[in-house]
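A reminder from the course coordinator: this example appears on the midterm review sheet, so study it carefully.

Given structure:
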């Protein structure tokens, strides 16, 4: 009976001392860590390497979408160009970015000569990254 009464009088408790110690240690750690990052770049004397020529760090531009509307008329974006003005546009694009790419689109009913004319203008402008998008034919006879 005596042991039952002693257990009933004792209430469970949480010792707060270790938790307060941990919190204070974390506080000191973060205070010291934030002080380390307050350095100014000018406090350090560093000789940065030099290069003869450096190009700016820019992302590659998107490929130009050339749409052959009819023989000799090509749309770039929402503007139409003939072959001569397209050549100037492509040369300017290649001067800005050496690996400029183009995507040549057109209706399937166009003549091959229309595509060859645009490919010739791309070659003349120095553009080598040329893509021709196509769609797979629908399978008429799957059982063949």
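Designed residues:
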């Amino acid at each position: 009976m005596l042991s039952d009464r002693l257990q009933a009088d004792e209430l469970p408790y949480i010792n707060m001392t270790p938790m307060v110690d941990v919190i204070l240690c974390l506080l000191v750690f973060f205070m010291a860590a934030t002080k380390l990052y307050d350095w100014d770049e000018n406090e350090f004397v560093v000789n940065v390497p030099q290069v003869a020529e450096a190009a700016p760090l820019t992302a590659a531009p998107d490929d130009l979408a050339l749409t052959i509307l009819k023989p000799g008329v090509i749309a770039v974006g929402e503007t139409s160009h003939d072959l001569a003005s397209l050549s100037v546009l492509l040369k300017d694009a290649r001067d800005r970015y050496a690996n400029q790419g183009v995507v040549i689109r057109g209706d399937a009913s166009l003549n091959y000569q229309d595509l060859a004319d645009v490919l010739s203008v791309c070659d003349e402008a120095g553009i080598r990254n040329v893509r021709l998008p196509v769609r797979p034919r629908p399978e008429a006879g799957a059982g063949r």
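Residues 94 and 100 are 6 Å apart (CA to CA). Helices lie at 2-9, 17-36, 83-96, 112-125.
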